[in-house]
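ping. complex inputs:
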Amino acid sequence: MTPKTTLNKKLDWILIGCYIFLVIFGWMNIYSSSLGDASVGFDWRAKYGMQLIWIASAVLIALVIVYVIPARFYSVFAWWMYAFMLLSLLAVIVIGHEVNGSKSWIVMGPLRIQPAEFSKIFTALALAALMEKFSFRFTNKLDALAAFSVIGVPMLLILAEREAGLALVYLGFLLAFYREGMTPWLILSGLLAILLFILTLVTSPFATILIFIGMIVLYVSFYSRNFIVNSAIGLLAIAIVSFLPRLGRIEAISGVFNIFTPEVWLTILTVPAAIFFIVRSFYRKRSDRMRNALIAYLIGVGLVFSVDFVFDHVLQDHQRLRIESLLGIKDDPMGAGYNVHQSKIAIGSGGIIGKGFLHGTQTRFDFVPEQSTDFIFCTVGEEWGFVGSLLVIICYVILLMRMYNSAERQKSRFARIYGYCAASCIFMHVMINLGMTIGLMPVIGIPLPFISYGGSSLWAFTILLFIFIRLDFEGRQ
Amino acid sequence: MDINSDRKDVLLIAMLAVFALIVIKLFFIQIINSEYRESAQNNALKFETRYPARGLIRDREGRIIVGNKITYDIHVTPYNVPEFDTLEFCRIFDIDTSYINERFRYYKANRRKIGYQSMTILKQISGEQYNVFVEKGFMFPGFEGVPRTSRTYNYNAGGNLLGYISEVDQDYIRKHPEYRSGDYAGRTGMEEAYEHILRGKKGYTIYLRDAHNQIKEHYRDGEKDVAAVAGEDVITTIDAPLQAYGEKLMRNKVGSLVAIEPSTGEILTMVSSPGIDVEKLAEINKYYNEIVSNPYRPMYNRAVMSPQPPGSCFKVVNALIGLQEGVVTPANRYGCNRGFIVGKLKVGCHAHPSPLDFYQAIQMSCNAYFCHVFRNIIDNPKYDSVRDAFNKWKEYTESFGFGTKLGTDIPSEQAGTMPTAERYDRLHGKNKWKSLSIISLSIGQGEIGCTPLHLANFAATVANRGYFYTPHIQKDTPEHPIDDRFKERRYTMVDTSYFKEVVKGMRMAVNGGAGSTARVADIPGIAVCGKTGTAQNPHGDEHSVFICFAPMDDPKIAVAAYVENAGFGATWAAPIASLLVEMYLKGEISEGRKDLENRIVSTSLMHKVRVRKR
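pong. complex structure:
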């Protein structure tokens, strides 16, 4: 066999197949949503025309990556490329162009490039180069610090460009970290913090603290000798305390009681006790689990009390409005909830099999803003219905499972870590984007991989995927 | 194989769980939920905004100062407009055809972007014009009228106090994300300050439309519509007829006139002249450039924004401080030989008997007497240095509110200026200054700047014999209670027992026979207490100043009048303030004072004010 045919046989055609399907299907939806006045004829300057050019160039890039550049190149030059990427992120902050409130574009003639889109490729390569070393351990503080810095620095720069969405995607690298031995508690406590934040907003600080105490009681008694008795006593106590706010209605003591809100009373009653037990456990040098749970409780209470502050002072106005509308605190279909409301109407109106190609009404009449970029999934949902949406999702699932599985099989640590990073990036993008269009997540404007309109994003995901395909191919030889 | 390889499965399970969640949600949106299913029959919802009526502004008796009238905005959906009779359209609305042609050129150029949306093409069309348009509506498909409220004014008064409303611009929307383009908001004065009460809440009506974007029907019989909630009224402390009368008195003069009810701190009248005519206020866009380019700056609320020297009115402040410090008693007499002369320094005075006691000094406004009092304060041996004594004096004046923001609810209130020791250090060298260097402070000249509101507040403080309420313009109502700070008595550092002495002097200034400076302010049957001021300034003739309150024993109104470059306090400010007092307390001007009223109303003093050309 010639070397070329060997290569072709050993390429991961499943990944390439998913890629081709998503890109072509994506283009069809962009065509439908940006068609406008059909009588004009094929317009190269319309979005569907431009996207064809992006696709053609992306295929060229993919060919070069697969057939020309050897895998060695990436591990040797990983740090150089990472440094170059940081420089270009910085440069954008200084000389970049502002588009829709984010200063993240470099404009060269007709070409507009968003370095933040490409930065995740180089971050993934740098992470692979860093963690490839056999001595690398997350338990080693210096190693962990280095790994977090590699994702932290570009993340901060991207935040400075006001692209909060693209910065958020970097949290996906934590999944790869987890695979490489980082403690799962970091991710779990992050999720727990989000849960407490949401609970505080939709219920009340008092209820949130009670629920949190309940979780801790269950956790601690799960590891105790008698789970049923201990947890029953704890939950009973919580049930009694939950009547605390009613004390304010008893006239004899309401004067004293109403000095503080119920959550402050709860804090006054529990926090000193928690501190006492923490201090005591340090002296007795045992019961680590209990102590950690109590420390977590203190942090959790602090978090609950800071929610109002974060909500009112840290978040920007539009971010606050988006969260309020997501959680249903403020129903405002003409205001902050407009995008999501229109997006849900478009997707929902698709029904089971959709209205058919080019027959969508919602998406073609520009009810949904950012139609062909961030909200492209509306067109999918409206014109192809539940079946089409499911097809796209299944395609993503196949792509991602294939990437994770194949990454795990790699003999080279570099290829494995890169594979995890790349897959996690794509996963974060898909999750955030789909979650946003169907109202599971607040509006965070990031593109849907391979489908959304845009040269930067298509090129970036193409490079991200095909580097892995090349690494995988060399690993099989 | 790595020790962590089982973690891949955890990741895969988490990932699958996320996608399962997304699929379940999709299933609900696309298949289960009927709300979206309705849209599945090729229909779309059209939200049409319903604008609320803006709240009214009423005066203290509930009389409407600012009301509403219905006007119409004309919206057009360019996509639905065939060729139409432009000439007839322009005839109905009395506009130029070039405007319509220009708009439609714009719509054509941007037809992609506009798509099926409707645009506002004309604003604030009157009811009469709109009726004609509706009759001929069949000629103009694609156009429709949307009712809006615009402002009407029942009194020609309070233009720059009331403020105007206008359509929000991009800059405003960026700062207030709850507004959309097309909304109106109060931009100055009370309209701005009480925007949150007046604005109400927008609602919307939902229509179904078909694939050709034609509106088909009311969505679910209006079940999901949200009605607009009208804005709530704001009750002000202003007395509308009195405000109108005050503006009549101040017409063709530059300055301001402020009246406060001493027992509450409520502002009864606040005139800044020249002001904005309410007719122009209603159509601010049309007149905006004219108003802004007026060299007399009608947008500028002089009553709270223009610090000026208070002149002799400030002698009363020094008199009170002197009494409290014990450096002067009512029996003290000082001579005056046409002025206060020490070496080369001379502060001139007018002709009057000499020596004078404390009361007569206020009555006849003797400069020399108050130079002595001020020297006694500053050179008081009780204090280690001139600097300490001066700082104490400054503390006293600040307790009256001078040099500070009083904390009213009127937008853009200014603090005015009081000199600091550091300022004199710079002027004369560190600690090189003494009481004589700053002697002009004794008669309210020099480095003092206080707004007419400060002066009116001071008159109210004397009327109350020693305390004041922070002046405010919003009336306390159960629906919209005012801040507690407006209900607190604010005492000065001068003991309340000393105030009766200056009240006696101020009464004599109005009604003390020969030598009284403010006899013109005397009103038959009402005991007015007052003090004139004639403030020298570098811009031209003296400013004419007057503060007063009445009746002496049960004060109902305290007034400060400030007429720029008009001359003696007794000539212009005193009659204006006393006419206002008379109108408020009696409801009319007595026969004997009609001539005075005529003289005031018919005189223009505008030419005396030098203005910079802009």
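Residues 240-290+301-477+499-608 of chain B form a domain with the Beta-lactamase fold (CATH 3.40.710.10).
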